[in-house]
Amino acid sequence: MNIQNLIRAAAAIALFSAPTVHAENLDIVMSQVFPQDHATYIGYESVEREDIPVSAAIERKYLIVDFRLATAQPASEQLQASVHKVCMALLKDRELIRSLSDSGYDMVSVAFDRRSQFDCL
Predict the structure, then answer these.
(1) What is the distance between the alpha carbons of residues 81 and 53, in angstroms, rounded to a whole number?
(2) What residue spans of 32-112 are helical by DSSP H?
(3) How is the chain split into domains, by residue range?
(4) I need a surface site. Which of 2, 30, 46, 59 has the fewest CB within 10 A?
């Protein structure tokens, strides 16, 4: 194996292994935020903002972490407290925040249904 092939193999391994570590950490942190009878962590989605030009100095990607509450129509105070709880769980995990930032995310939103998102970071 020549040096170019070795460099390509190392780059491919780094490319494919880095998002997995970040995804596992995010899934672990988010699945532990609420007791099961309050809310269920569904997963996350990476979204690219088309309204920002590619040449802009800011990142175009943001992340949506998705939950479903056990209560169909939670009170406004309960919803606000739930958003705060998710955001604080993210903020307390400095390694996860660094990983998200290094992956190009400049914003994280929380969703508890398909209609609304609440910005965290």
Answers:
(1) 35
(2) 76-92, 94-102
(3) 23-119
(4) 2
- Do strands 118-119 and 105-111 pair parallel, antiparallel, or not at all (unpaired)? antiparallel
Place of tokens 């400049």: 106
Bridge partners of residue 109, in order along the sequence: 64, 119
Q: Which amino acid, one-letter code, is at 20?
A: T
Q: Which pLDDT score, from 0 to 100, does residue 22 have?
A: 54
- Which amino acid makes up residue 50? E
Any bridge partners for residue 47, and if so which?
A: 62
User: What's the one-letter identity of residue 25?
Assistant: N
Mean pLDDT in runs of 10 for the chain (121 residues)? 43 39 76 91 90 78 91 85 93 90 88 89 71
Q: How is residue 4 written in tokens?
A: 């170019």
In 3D space, the residue among 48, 50, 61 whose CA is nearest the CA of residue 106 turns out to be 61
The answer to whether 62 and 49 are in contact (CB under 8 A) is: yes
Distances (CA, A) of 81 to 5, 7, 74, 76: 52, 48, 11, 9
